[in-house]
Amino acid sequence: MDFEQVLALRQTTRKYTDQKVSDSDLEKILQAAQTAPLAAGDDKTTHLTLVKDPALMEEIRNACMLTSRKTGEKIDALYGVQAIIFVSATDISEDHIEYSNTGCVIENILLQATALGLGSTYIWGCLKKLRKNEEVMKKLCLPQGYEILSAAVVGYPAQPLTPRKISRKISVTEL
Ligand SMILES: Cc1cc2nc3c(=O)[nH]c(=O)nc-3n(C[C@H](O)[C@H](O)[C@H](O)COP(=O)(O)O)c2cc1C
């Protein structure tokens, strides 16, 4: 897929089908993550965790479940998706540059997923619930001293991705 097309098609998916992403596509997505820019030396202190095991995915989904303030209903903050990639880091610096690294890694994941015709979502809000769930955190087998900073989910979108018209939604000063 042409790069401009990928940019136009990349969008946050909030409803996934239960179709599994192939291992070869997941491998391409992990490779794309590997090409992200990271601050000097941080490739040694960054870690990725891919979860596609259905039973563990369900445990993560339950641990991430949010509750609607309006209705009290449970909300699947992972939108029915079947695969998640966590980005973790250790030795978090005072200036928190690791969060910038994470943003770069996640964006590569989102763009590669789009290029493969997949939906994708940056996952942040529900992770504080997950971090508190010791039982599930243990099952994620993070290397000693690492903490989850962000995550991305990838899967087949319930609705096809539709290209957006690229506009200046972010204000720009040109000098
Ligand atoms: C740092 C960051 C955290 C985000 N966290 C979440 C999240 O927890 N759940 C979610 O559904 N979307 C999350 N998003 C997606 C944004 O809501 C989304 O990118 C924004 O609404 C623009 O929509 P678009 O991605 O379709 O262009 C996050 C995006 C970023 C960059």
TrEMBL record:
Residues 10-156 form the Nitroreductase domain. InterPro entries: Nitroreductase, Nitroreductase-like. One of its GO terms (molecular function) is oxidoreductase activity. Keywords: Oxidoreductase. SUPFAM superfamilies: FMN-dependent nitroreductase-like. Gene3D superfamilies: NADH Oxidase. Belongs to the nitroreductase family. PANTHER family: NAD(P)H NITROREDUCTASE YDGI-RELATED, NADH DEHYDROGENASE_NAD(P)H NITROREDUCTASE XCC3605-RELATED. This is Nitroreductase family protein. It comes from Candidatus Blautia pullistercoris. The lineage of its organism: Bacteria, Bacillati, Bacillota, Clostridia, Lachnospirales.
